[in-house]
Amino acid sequence: MSPTAQAVAERRPAYLTELARGTEHFHEPRRPDCPWCGSTKLRTRLRTTDLLQHKPGTFTVDQCRSCGHSFQNPRLTPEGLNFYYRDFYDGLHADRAERISGAQNSTKRHQGCAHAMFRHLEPESWLDVGTGHGHFPAVAKEVLPYTAFDGLDIGDGVEEARRAGRVEEAHRGFLTELAPQLAGRYDAMSMFHYLEHSLDPREELKAARRVLRPGGHLMIELPDPESRYAKLLGKWWVSYFQPQHLHFIPLANLRTELAALGYTVVAVDRREPHVPLDLTAACTLLLGHYLPDADDPWRTKVPSGLQRRLRQALMYASVPASVAAHAADRALAPLVSRTGFSNAYRVIARRNPDPS
Ligand SMILES: [Zn+2]
Prior knowledge:
Helices cover 40% and strands 19% of the residues. By secondary structure, it is an alpha/beta fold. Helix 4 packs across helix 5 (135-143) and helix 11 (278-290) packs antiparallel against helix 13. Bound molecules: zinc ion.
């Protein structure tokens, strides 16, 4: 048995025990109102399955007709989140996460973010929230050699990042819980593709304000729910990222919220944060959906030899389509932001002094 097949076999009993109760208990009750503005005028924006890992379950994204906020509804419970995140970023299939989100982690992108901050200040101390394995700080400190980078995350990647020297200090836990002990410690903070995963983005922004010094800057990058790719690709738009993305915040809502919480927005960018992967990722998701099942621990049956060989053959056969999609993504990249197709935006906000 290969090491992967062995790992799958070891994980299977625990997964199947959890799934014996179905997947309903992974969801909270459906909420009747918008978590952003309280309006009860909701519409169903998307219904999908788990196209990332193909675990059982269905997920719905609702959109508020009053303020435009979109959100997973019903939302996953903490147990549900734990179930669907398992073996994604760490463990068994971490390589799949790399394939899908790897483009977000390119060195050039990280350098661009560090330069964007440097246009406003040269921070002494920078906290990267949701740092994962510390890829961003590792690159950013080459651009900003006098800045001390720390990382915060719930996973053990952040501790590994400290041991590897990618961050100086590792804070493990939730920002909302760690904020009191970190109050006023940083003059820069970043949240790259982080808020959409959080239970309550507004609480995260409040916590960030507490952790920042007056005059400190917060950099946020988020998927743009108003991207025309969302309409064009529907559930194959990778930024929907179900079931992990809980909130989709339109830029105007984020700006209003930041102002209300005591920040001044100093920069907005819809061009640089675009990750040219929409068509390539849609291909990957489609392929993953229609190929014969992989050997996954949440499936009761181990695939037969024939199924494995067929899967392998179809994967090779699909390479030209993926290569074409990748080329199209790259060729279109300079155009997308001018035509409403950019898939992400960036906001830099300065923390205002406290009212005296
Ligand atoms: Zn609303």
